[in-house]
Amino acid sequence: MDQTLSAKIRFAPLPYVLIMDGEVRDDNLDKLGRNRFWLRSQLRQRGIRSFKSVYYCSIDRRGKLYIAR
């Protein structure tokens, strides 16, 4: 690959999946130093009361949550 082209490409780490099909991924929460209480709080701030009602939830490297219901 051309040096100038490779210098312009930046790779961001993939987001961590926190919930998939209503199931919490505790392993990824542990990697982030977070727990279910923190996640529940984040969801409640967005009007979501149950993990089961979330199809997919992830967090990017900037700490932004993406939630699909």
TrEMBL record:
The keyword Cell division does not apply. The keyword Ribosomal protein does not apply. Keywords: Cell membrane, Membrane, Transmembrane, Transmembrane helix. It holds the Pfam family DUF421. GO terms for cellular component: plasma membrane. It comes from the Bacteria. Transmembrane segments: none annotated. InterPro entries: DUF421, UPF0702_alpha/beta_dom_sf. It is found in: Cell membrane. Residues 14-59 form the YetF C-terminal domain. Coiled coil: none annotated. It is a multi-pass membrane protein. Belongs to the UPF0702 family. This is DUF421 domain-containing protein. It comes from Cohnella fermenti.
